[in-house]
What we know:
By secondary structure, the chain is mostly helical.
Amino acid sequence: MSKTPGNIHRLRLGSIARKGAASLVLICFMMLAPVTIVFNAIVTPLTQAESWHMVVQETRLGERSRSLLAHFVVSSALQSGQQADFVGDFSLRSWESVAEILFPVEWVETSYRETIDAFLGWVHSNQSGYPLVELDLIPVKQTLSGPRGALAVLPLMQGFPSCEPGFSQVTLLADQLITCLPPDQDLTFFAGLIARSIVNYLPNQISLQSLAQAGVLPAQIEKNLEQARSGVKTAQAAAILGMRASLLLFCLYAWLRLTDWLAWLRKLALPLYLAGGLTALLIGTWHFSLAWGGRMAGTMLFSQVDVETQAWMLDGLKAFSSMSEKQALGMALLLVSLGAALHLVAIIAGRRSMHHAAITTIESTLPSRGKFRKQFR
């Protein structure tokens, strides 16, 4: 193309338009990439069984939630009439003594791991119906049937009221548990009766489907689970789409800024620096916000549960937050490192190029070897 005034003008306009488009793409990349990185760092741990296993171990969830699990298991088996009243009047502290005997920490942690694996396997599959989550209660029933069963139930009987005067014998009906005790009677005997009665109500396994059929879980639980699975898959698809869109924007920026290869390397480092820095800024803001107001927000969010349950739920939330922060910061560090590597390559290559150009210039000013010899003949 000849360098006429019209062509020069068109070249300048094309260069300005190319730079403007590159700036616009860079802004879009800066806005999308950090948000996508943080979002992906949140979604990934929530959908990986290994992350949940780590949270259970770090927060000592098996040990701390045993009393709640004991209350849930027994109350799930005793859902009608006096049975529901029997389990409804005890605090979680009362259930701790029950849990120490009936629910060893190893059994609870194993049950949690199996539940997590089964549930997340269902989430990632196209299986219809309920997740195949089952809690094996045979070890619990065996303990209750033995001599330790009375010891497990005994703490619950400390607050039993005395029976009315004239009530000389306690009768254990087929559909009713003991709700009062005759004065001056051995509690251990009645604790054994209650333990064996609970065994009759407990199934060998508890599953989500059986709990829903028994009315323990709401009738719409299956619909809610399907909606949750759909939400998780949508979040995963959004995270993948965001990463692909960010990569496309980066490639488009690289193409728009394609000029001299040394200058091109320096320009490629800029979006990597910006994306890494903004990601670190987002994570820092999230970390300090959680540190300053996390407990207050968690208390409001989990206001329907008791303080002890709030504590381990908040610890679990913090553990997930820590995993997300580490993953996002690792990605930010990777981007900054790639940018620094490109910048360093550009600097080294530029210095070598300048050194080579200087040597070439010096050699071009010196007389050739043949002329030098002729001068001294």
